[in-house]
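Alkene reductase (Brachybacterium ginsengisoli), 358 aa
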Amino acid sequence: MTTASLWQPLTVGRLDLPHRLALSPMTRNRANPDGTPGEHTATYYRQRASLGLLISEGTQPSEDGQGYFATPGIHTSEQIEGWREVADAVHEDGGHLFIQLMHAGRISHPDNTPHHRQPVGPSAISAEQDIHTPRGVEKTPVPRELATEEIAGVIDEFRQSAASAIAAGADGVEIHAANGYLLHQFLAPNANQRTDEYGGSIENRARFVLEIAQAVADEIGADRTGIRISPAFPLGGLEEGDAGAVRAQYRYLVGELVPLNLAYLHVHHLGDDELLRSFREMWPTALLVVRYGRDRDAIAADIDAGLADMAPLGRFALANPDVVERLRTDAPLNDADPATLYTGGANGYIDYPTLAHA
């Protein structure tokens, strides 16, 4: 049984939202080979427009940013046109779209990218992760360390792709600084062993993320810019140290983000409630919190505890296009089919039944 707190309206940046639910970003591997959204993408997001704030799947800001095959970009004119169709569909059904800007960094493979080049990263250290490619499962290779003089160009890719998202009709963007990808790699000591101003100290390891956030906010407006973090999440082979080290890194990062007055902070939370509480105390705008493994009765727990303003939904929303209605009426939920999460096509993507069709 969901609590009344979920159904209170909330303003996030420029958006007036009807409730506290949102669509969490989820990679679905349904893009076309040229990085344009796939044929069913507009339908997929339209079906979930009642969630109010829809955060898209990870979308690469450049060819170098692609990690997985069949993922979309937002850096060519064709990709902008493809996302315009998605944004229009979401708006027609009353929702709002933020496109998540995701540079995969070292979590990539040459077989998955259009140029087949070596991945880039903060340091030439392999993630040693299995990754699916068109030829099967491979190991992520050793990335090429970004030269100091290249970093400004990567920051500009984020700025330009944010502008492209707005040109496509999106309501804003989410900067992906979480889940083992490039920005998170710069934060993690075992992936970032640089000796320039982007490595070493807490302040230096945060610099890249902060400069991207500043550039994007300057380009499209802070009230159209969100950011996602995942403190201590070990995805992608990252290690961020003990609880004290993680708290020091992320309290510094979030504290430096505060003056930007971004639309929201999105925390993929592993369970350090003391750290989350400190974010709540310092963060001036909306705080989104998602945890692995929540059941439906726990969706509003962080909101009720005063630790969050919104509760993004992942698999509940993936398997239930009408999840808002189902939660509001305490109706049963469809289960997500793991076998079709990343298989392409309509099956397991746009064919989950609504209550009206059940």
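Residues 4-340 form a domain with the TIM Barrel fold (CATH 3.20.20.70). The first strand starts at residue 10 and ends at 12. ok done for today
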